[in-house]
């Protein structure tokens, strides 16, 4: 959805601030007692790569060094996979081959919607 969440760890109780590549604050949240945080951004990011920086501030007003990261936002659904073989399953088990968006997970379901298999398309979409 382009909003996250962005998760990580920081000093327990600190406020974690997320900024975009132009140093604009785009989200903030508090690390819990274990130091874990999970922050939804204020507004969704557009599709594509985004450089983000995160800092933590404690109750005394001290600010941590920046942590920089790049996130790839992809809100577009992949195109439907295409089965290339077999045309029927003589043995009832496959294998089933086809093409899909590179790196996508292909889930095979029976007529009742139950998952009966899954695989990941390689870098070529096979």
Automatic annotation (TrEMBL):
<feature type="compositionally biased region" description="Basic and acidic residues">
    <location>
        <begin position="108"/>
        <end position="126"/>
    </location>
</feature>
<dbReference type="InterPro" id="IPR041498">
    <property type="entry name" value="Big_6"/>
</dbReference>
<dbReference type="InterPro" id="IPR013783">
    <property type="entry name" value="Ig-like_fold"/>
</dbReference>
<feature type="domain" description="Bacterial Ig">
    <location>
        <begin position="7"/>
        <end position="71"/>
    </location>
</feature>
<feature type="compositionally biased region" description="Acidic residues">
    <location>
        <begin position="32"/>
        <end position="46"/>
    </location>
</feature>
<dbReference type="Pfam" id="PF17936">
    <property type="entry name" value="Big_6"/>
</dbReference>
<protein>
    <recommendedName>
        <fullName>Bacterial Ig domain-containing protein</fullName>
    </recommendedName>
</protein>
<feature type="region of interest" description="Disordered">
    <location>
        <begin position="1"/>
        <end position="126"/>
    </location>
</feature>
<feature type="compositionally biased region" description="Basic and acidic residues">
    <location>
        <begin position="18"/>
        <end position="31"/>
    </location>
</feature>
<feature type="domain" description="Bacterial Ig">
    <location>
        <begin position="78"/>
        <end position="125"/>
    </location>
</feature>
């Amino acid at each position: 959805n382009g909003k996250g969440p962005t998760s990580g760890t920081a000093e327990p109780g600190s406020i974690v601030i997320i900024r975009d590549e132009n140093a604009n604050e785009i989200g903030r949240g508090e690390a819990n007692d274990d130091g874990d945080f999970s922050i939804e951004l204020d507004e969704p990011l557009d599709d594509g790569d985004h450089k983000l920086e995160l800092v933590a501030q404690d109750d005394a007003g001290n600010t941590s060094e920046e942590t920089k990261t790049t996130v790839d936002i992809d809100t577009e659904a992949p195109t439907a996979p295409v089965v290339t073989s077999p045309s029927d399953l003589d043995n009832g088990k496959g294998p089933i081959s086809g093409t899909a968006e590179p790196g996508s997970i292909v889930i095979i379901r029976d007529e009742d919607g139950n998952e009966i298999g899954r695989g990941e398309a390689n870098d070529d979409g096979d």
